[in-house]
Amino acid sequence: MTAQSEIRDEDAFELELFGLITRYEDDVLDEGGLSRLNELLIGHAVARDIFNDVCLQSLAIGEAISVEDAAKQGIAPSKPRRKLIAFPSWAYAAAAAVVALFATLYHFSQQD
After folding, report:
1. Higher model confidence: residue 103 or residue 9?
2. Which of 44, 65, 46, 42 is nearest to 54 (CA)?
3. Nearest residue to 48 (alpha-carbon basis) of 81, 87, 85, 20
4. How much of the chain is helix, strand and coil, in % rounded to 5?
5. How many CA atoms lie within 13 A of 30 on its CB side?
6. What whole-number distance in Å separates Cα of residue 83 and Cα of residue 91?
7. Any idea where the domains of the chain sit in the sequence?
8. What would the pLDDT profile of 61-74 be if each residue is shown by its tens digit?
């Protein structure tokens, strides 16, 4: 009898967990459900593994659908923007050298 009750407890646990995760993913989880989900995630490593797997699968499905939609519309997936080429640092050094040269020449011309 204890083995069957453990199986029922596990089934009830998984059923509750999957219900909470589903409502979380659908963004309809209320405060009580969110606190219960947090309790399960804190207290059970299995619950954390299941939650992590479901979230990763949701992300993978979303990415696959967006790529598929982009392919149907003939839009290439967006590439990351290239970094703009910064103003060369040697230009700052050259400008500083020119200013120092003019300041030196001005200083010596004032002494004469």
Report:
1. 103
2. 46
3. 20
4. 80, 0, 20
5. 1
6. 19
7. 2-80
8. 888 888 877 777 77
